[in-house]
Amino acid sequence: MIKKPEFNRDDVEIVQREELYKRFFRVEKLVLRHKLFKGGWSKDMSRELFVRGDAVAVVVYDPVHDLIGMIEQFRVGAMGEEAGPWCYEVVAGMVETGESAEEVARRELLEEASLEPYYMEYICNFLSSPGGSDEKLYLFCGLCDLSQAGGVHGVPDEHEDIRLHSFAADDVFAELLNGRFNNAAALICLQWLQMNRARLRKDRGA
Questions:
Q1: How far apart are CA 33 and CA 44, in angstroms?
Q2: Residue 29 confidence (pLDDT)
Q3: Residues contacting residue 20 through CB under 8 Å, at least 6 positions apart
Q4: Where are the domains of the chain?
Q5: Angle (nearest 5°) at CA 67 between 170 and 99
Q6: C-beta of residue 187 within 8 angstroms of C-beta of residue 176
Q7: CA angle at residue 170 from 67 to 81, to 5 degrees?
Q8: pLDDT of res. 120
Q9: Using a CB cutoff of 8 Å and minimum separation of 24, what contacts does 150-155 make?
Q10: CA distances to 90, 152, 154 from 180, in Å
Q11: pLDDT tens-digit series, residues 109-121
């Protein structure tokens, strides 16, 4: 059995908090100390925190036609990639105040892919980069009919230019670890789908 961590949030003391930057994202400077495994407390330390909040990602699957829906869009953080900054991703978006994770998943499917799922299944949640960000992603699988899906989607006012692709599942899984899907949310979602594909086809497919 895997035990819970020895310490929790009560074992951290925030000495000082300062907002360094706030526009679309926010960065805070924290001075803090925490309990040590060998006993006692650490010295005060300074850490910058990228305040990102909660987000949602959805892998789109058509169990009837055995197709996976992937979106393609420009990503500034991928400018240094050899293959270029257009990435294959799963549908994703930020959670706004008052929204549930599943509501965001359904909203983003409409905005980024013009799709309405007939079944949604929760996968898991994870911290994207806890060494410096508070972002938590909630992952889902949305089952949709992809037989006629495609085209360019997104919200123009948000500078979204998103192309939807429908790929054969075998083709996606053959490229899974070859660098085509170079972001954590896509990799985790696709690995989950690979493990659950047969069940979804049996229960929700043809």
A1: 5
A2: 97
A3: 27, 28, 29, 48
A4: 9-51, 54-204
A5: 125
A6: yes
A7: 95
A8: 96
A9: 151/114, 153/71, 153/111, 153/112, 153/113, 153/114, 154/73, 154/111, 154/112, 155/111
A10: 12, 20, 22
A11: 999 999 999 999 9
Tokens linked to 64: 């009837």
Q: Domain 54-204 - what CATH class? A: alpha beta
Catalytic, 158? Answer: yes
Q: Tell me, what amino acid is at 85? A: P
- From 18, 96, 121, 158, the catalytic residue: 158
Cα first-last separation, the chain: 39
The answer to whether residues 34 and 41 touch, using CB atoms and an 8 Å cutoff, is yes
Beta carbons of 149 and 164 less than 8 angstroms apart: yes
Single-letter amino acid code for the residue at 7: F
Measured CA distances, 131 to 14, 50, 51, 78, 165 (Å): 16, 10, 12, 20, 33
pLDDT digits over 127-181, tens only?
999 999 999 999 999 999 999 999 899 888 878 899 999 999 999 999 999 988 9
Confidence of residue 205 (pLDDT cuts 50, 70, 90): low
